[in-house]
Amino acid sequence: MDKVTQSELPARLERLYRSGLSIVFVIARDPSAVIRAVFASQIETRWTWGPGRPFSARGPLPPGFNGLSQWQDLPHLASLPWAGPTIGVITGLPGDAPDAGYFADLLDATSEEIRGRQAPLLLVLVLSGGLPENYRHIGPVLRVMPPDQAERADIVRGLAEKNQIAASESAIQESAQALSGLEAGEIRQIVLSQLAGAGTLDPEAAGAEKARRLASGGLLEPIRVRPVAVGGLSELKRWLQTRAQAAQRGLPMPKGVVLVGPPGTGKSLSAQLVAGTFEVPMVRLDFGRLMGSFVGESEKNLRTALAQAEAMYPSILWVDEIEKGLSGSGSNGSEITRRLLQYLLGWMQEQTGVFVFATANDVSALPPELLRKGRFDELFYVDLPSRSEREEIWVASLDRWHIDPSSVDVPALVSASEGYTGAEIAAVVSDAVYESEGSLTTATLLSAVKSTRPLSNVFPEQIQSIRAWGAAHARPAGGSPEPVGASATRFRS
Ligand SMILES: Nc1ncnc2c1ncn2[C@@H]1O[C@H](COP(=O)(O)OP(=O)(O)OP(=O)(O)O)[C@@H](O)[C@H]1O
Ligand SMILES: [Mg+2]
């Protein structure tokens, strides 16, 4: 799959035409942009047709031709007396199972007809989701990428200047950043409505509007990235830092990381860390939400969701609790989720620019193919926090309530909370804050610690088995893991 920008598209299609190709797929969120690109090309005859779209054409056409009346007529196109070089853009092709097999046959026949007759005809088939598996062999695939940061900034700056509104360069850059992933037309709409309404740029509102538009299908949830204090996980932090610096030097983003560990150890919190370190937008994919009631609907939803995430690149795709979707619900639920997972893994290999951050705590539910090397870059294990990690978590948790850590006996709290997760420590602090009625002391905190029974104490076997699994199969996310039976080995080795 090739990526092209909107402005490269006309020349690209012309070249494909000249190479004698009969069918090309173009994946674009906005089909009108593809139609505009084709009509802007130098090919003599250009026409477009699609269900629910008026037929329109430029250049000479075979007599009486004004689009298709039914999909079955597709192969017949090749036999029409085309006068010269022709590109046709067809939108609205049903791209989804259970019909995909039928349409793939139709497209095969069409492509064969065009080649057989040497008709000077290239068909551009526009899809807005991803490409169905059945279509893959039929023709090359171009993905139209939305404008990059510099192009977005140019659009915003241009509109501000045209409307004689003074905007600082930093407001322009921030707005451009907030609008990543949108098409030029959408960016113009949002910025123009701000300039016409409030008379000024508002990056935050622009980001909210983008989130609203991108999430309109409800498959991806835009996540607001905020600075967070995460205690421990020093290896994960270091790993992310080096990758983020490499990305800044132009190296590709990592493809993905899986983070496993007991409940409450800060896995979900770490998603913020990932997005913050890479300084890119983040969206959450909920496997459960993809499930449709019709055959093939879940796959279609996943394809659409991944295409949306890819359009926002560079971005973080956060798949929280990936095993929840995988254990499946109904009788064939697990079969569907397995297929979804296969698709996700295949997609990860192909795409660049989206970093998949997956978390899980029930490792027994994870299928082996998820963990096989070469799929995700790394599998990290978050253990129960060590002494020094608990200290960092106590400090971060107190900080969140604006409590000066030097006003309490942190070492005593650290000792008293052995076996507690970050979530349990955070909960202890908030309980104590409410109980103390304004005068928080070490004693209040210690009594809150005592009245909390940590999970590692309630379900020692389960926690122990997660820990043993992590130590044996994954790379420690923390600095110095405390030994749990087997010594820690690297995922890759
Ligand atoms: N390492 C940590 N540093 C600071 N706070 C933490 C840490 N770990 C957990 N917390 C606190 O606990 C809360 C819950 O943690 P989080 O949701 O990230 O756990 P989790 O590992 O995703 O758990 P689960 O497996 O149940 O989803 C966080 O929002 C934070 O307040
Ligand atoms: Mg979580």
Structure write-up:
It is a single chain. By secondary structure, this protein is of the alpha/beta class. The protein has 4 domains: 2-145, 3-Layer(aba) Sandwich (Rossmann fold); 149-214; 234-381, P-loop containing nucleotide triphosphate hydrolases (Rossmann fold), CATH 3.40.50; 387-457, Orthogonal Bundle (Helicase, Ruva Protein, domain 3). It has helices at residues 9-18, 31-39, 100-117, 149-162, 169-178, 184-197, 203-214, 234-248, 267-278, 287-290, 297-311, 322-327, 333-350, 368-371, 387-400, 410-416, 422-436, 442-450, 455-458, 460-473, and strands spanning 2-5, 23-27, 45-50, 53-58, 86-90, 121-127, 141-145, 220-223, 256-260, 282-285, 315-319, 354-360, 378-381, 475-476. The chain has a 7-stranded mixed β-sheet with strand order 1-7-2-6-5-3-4. A 7-stranded mixed β-sheet has the order 8-10-11-12-9-13-14, sandwiched between helices. The radius of gyration is 27 Å and the shape is elongated. The model is unreliable at 481-493 (pLDDT under 50). Bound molecules: adenosine-5'-triphosphate and magnesium ion. Magnesium ion is lined by residues 267-268, 320, 359.
